[in-house]
């Protein structure tokens, strides 16, 4: 069977739980080395939407070359990645613009997510937190325009505090959903008290949070709580800024340099010949059933190839070995 046939099949199907082998790229004129990919998919909350276990965190896109960014997004889609996550905050909206331009041809085949809540100041000097309904409704229109789409699959509150006008925020999301401008909404938060409020008061279908072997705070209670409510976790930071893979050890959260080095050594030991260390770090977060996708910041084709090929799932003994390598931390604030 020719690669082209396999590639075309990728974009003719509705991304089932697992895809057949995909070779190369589906975008003519942009060949790259032949790699075998078998992407797997998980349900996003109770929506019926299937998202790739590896999601593309678009904040990693360079601000230097639009063409390189578009090529990289095309290559990611060709591997079976169907979840792309951006935000209006990134590069003052330019990130959304690039993502929209790159993925417009296959918009109906992907799950497009963006975020709202950080309002750039008129002088461009920085941004302020704004979770109010009026702003969210206005910001949604601007994101739709930049993304070149008539709806956003997942619209996320990009932060949040317990002192926010939460009901006002929820009203904005519900209105956008009723209007068909968004399909679903969620929040991006590492604050347990905020997460619990949205569980109680809204119909969020996902929570994006930082989670890795070096940041096991979600394991204390939040992951299980979200699983009980069938709310999916979108895990960012699985590689812990590269400290679990290839960056020199340094202090991270409440972990010492020595603790970080020990965790990275455990990742390398478990990887062996079966996985890249980056794949092992990602498989660790995917091990929890609440996690629908690991959102990875991919900067180039080399990194893409490191995280996307089919890999061997972690065994229980390997999970225990990794967990024994470093103490579990916990949220100290916003409990």
Question: The biggest beta sheet, please?
Answer: 8 strands, parallel, barrel
- What is the second-level CATH architecture? Alpha-Beta Barrel
Cα distance spanning the termini? 55 Å
What is the fold-level CATH name, i.e. the topology? TIM Barrel
**Stretches where pLDDT falls below 50 for ≥5 residues?**
1-35
Helix content: 25-40%
Number of domains: 1
Describe the protein in words:
The chain has 335 residues and is α/β, with parallel strands linked by helices. The chain has a single domain, classed as Alpha-Beta Barrel (TIM Barrel), CATH 3.20.20. Helices cover 36% and strands 18% of the residues. It has helices at residues 3-12, 66-78, 94-103, 133-147, 166-178, 192-201, 222-228, 257-271, 277-286, 301-307, 316-324, and strands at 22-23, 36-37, 41-43, 50-52, 54-57, 83-85, 111-116, 118-120, 127-129, 152-158, 182-188, 206-210, 232-236, 291-296. The strands form 4 sheets. The protein has an 8-stranded parallel β-barrel with strand order 5-6-7-10-11-12-13-14, surrounded by 4 helices. A two-stranded antiparallel ribbon has the order 1-2. α2 (66-78) packs across α3 (94-103), α3 packs across α4 and α8 (257-271) crosses α9 (277-286). The radius of gyration is 19 Å and the shape is globular. It starts with a helix and ends in an 11-residue tail after the last helix.
């Amino acid at each position: 069977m020719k690669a082209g046939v396999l590639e075309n099949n990728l974009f003719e199907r509705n991304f089932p739980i697992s895809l057949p082998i995909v070779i190369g790229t589906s975008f003519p004129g942009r060949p790259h080395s032949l790699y075998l990919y078998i992407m797997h998919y998980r349900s996003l909350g109770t929506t019926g939407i299937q998202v790739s276990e590896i999601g593309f965190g678009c904040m990693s896109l360079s601000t230097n070359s639009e063409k390189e960014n578009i090529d990289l997004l095309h290559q990611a889609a060709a591997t079976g990645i169907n979840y792309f996550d951006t935000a209006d905050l990134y590069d003052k909206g330019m990130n959304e613009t690039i993502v929209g331009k790159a993925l417009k041809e296959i918009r109906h085949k992907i799950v497009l997510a963006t975020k709202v809540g950080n309002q750039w100041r008129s002088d461009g000097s920085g941004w302020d937190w704004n979770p109010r309904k009026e702003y969210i409704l206005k910001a949604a229109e601007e994101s739709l325009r930049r993304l070149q789409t008539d709806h956003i699959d997942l619209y996320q509150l990009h932060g949040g505090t317990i002192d926010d006008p939460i009901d006002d925020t929820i009203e904005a999301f519900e209105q956008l959903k009723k209007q068909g401008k968004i399909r679903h909404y969620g929040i991006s938060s590492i604050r347990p008290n905020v997460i619990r409020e949205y569980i109680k008061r809204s119909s969020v279908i996902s929570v994006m949070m930082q989670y890795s072997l070096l940041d096991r705070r979600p394991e204390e209670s939040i992951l299980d709580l979200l699983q009980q409510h069938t709310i999916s976790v979108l895990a960012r930071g699985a590689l812990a800024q590269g400290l679990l893979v290839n960056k020199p050890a340094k202090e991270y959260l409440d972990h010492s340099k020595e603790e970080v080095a020990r965790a990275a050594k455990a990742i390398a030991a478990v990887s062996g010949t079966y996985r890249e260390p980056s794949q092992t770090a990602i498989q660790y977060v995917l091990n929890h059933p609440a996690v629908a996708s690991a959102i990875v910041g991919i900067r180039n084709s080399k990194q893409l190839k490191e995280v996307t090929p089919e890999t061997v799932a972690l065994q229980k003994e390997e999970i225990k070995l990794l967990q024994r390598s470093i103490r579990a931390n916990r949220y100290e604030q916003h409990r």
